[in-house]
Amino acid sequence: MPDVIADLTLVNAQSIAERVSMSAAIAELQRVLRAGFDPEGDLPRGILDVPNGQLLLMPAAVDGAVGQKFATVAPGNPALGLERIQAVYILLDGTTLAPTAILDGTALTSLRTPAVSIASVDLLARPDAGDVVIFGTGPQAVRHVEALQAIRPLRTVRLIGRDPDRAAAAVEESRAFAPDAEITVGTPDAVRTADLIVCATTASDPLFPSDQVREDATIVAIGSHEPQKAELDPALVGRSQVVVESLRVATSEAGDVIRAIAAGALAEADLVTMHDLFTGAVPPATDRPRIVKTCGMGWQDLAVARLAV
């Protein structure tokens, strides 16, 4: 029998960073969506509860390519100095379905998550948007600074977190990605002057009230795929244009959407999918806030993984 393992290409975190820039990841996701791919048809992922978190199985088949991510979500990991989300990714031959490469799925997730949200923000945010507030101080908070800088020259960045030391560390890390921006630890009231707001937390309840958000602001919510958690005020979701990956995912996993619908602030028919946005079926709103709510889907990992191999 052939030695399958010996024939596999192994792509570690450093190789992913060297081979795929944030700009390239954003551009590739935009290309896939503009080419007409509809995430509504993406293969469903499995989410299984285990004693210390969750196991996620995320298959995908797009443009003749096939892949599968095996991911874990362990809420207690940050206290141990470990990533909350960890993963391995297996890329398969599209014809034979034989494994061809194994990638560091943790690094892949860290890259594709901000690339996905910012791919849509690029279409929704004002051309001169550059004042940012980020709730969260973990890896995704920092990587969203990198992703936003890839599409807009940032002026100010305020990072908000419960732990002062972690917030200060996130500020220092972020300065490498946006050296010309004024980056500091912030407070929630900074939302009032922000035109870009990122929510990258594990919060179960809204982080700020709707009336603090400007009409021309663009908001990203990526903190959770759990239906019982919501980072955004239902009133804010209801008064905004809400862009989601797919209706199926948004109405089953996106707590921000589910809670707003339950409160009567939003109807499922009001949701705009990424397919709608990128094919021009629905134009970006200009008269109200814009929200990008993502939960993570397999096609996104596959699109970026192909760039790395």
Q: Could you characterize what this model shows?
A:
With 309 residues, the chain is α/β, with parallel strands linked by helices. Helix content is 34%, strand content 24%. It contains eleven helices and 14 strands.
Topology:
Elements: H1 4-7, E1 9-11, H2 13-19, H3 22-34, E2 46-50, E3 53-62, E4 65-73, E5 85-92, E6 99-104, H4 105-124, E7 131-135, H5 139-151, E8 156-160, H6 164-175, E9 182-185, E10 196-199, E11 218-221, H7 234-238, E12 241-244, H8 247-253, H9 255-262, E13 272-273, H10 274-278, E14 290-293, H11 298-308
Parallel strand pairs: 1-6, 7-8, 7-10, 8-9, 10-11, 11-14, 12-13, 12-14
Antiparallel strand pairs: 2-3, 3-4, 4-5, 5-6
Q: Tell me the strand percentage band.
A: 15-25%
Roughly how much helix do the residues carry, as a percent range? 25-40%
Q: Tell me about the biggest sheet?
A: 8 strands, parallel
* Assembly context of the chains: single chain
**Termini Cα gap:** 25 Å
In round numbers, the mean pLDDT is 95
Read across the widest sheet, the strand sequence of neighbours is 9-8-7-10-11-14-12-13
Shape: globular
Q: Which stretches of 5+ consecutive residues score pLDDT under 50?
A: none
Number of strands: 14
Structural category: alpha/beta
Rg from C-alpha positions? Answer: 19 Å
The helix tally amounts to 11
SSE arrangement, N to C? HEHHEEEEEHEHEHEEEHEHHEHEH
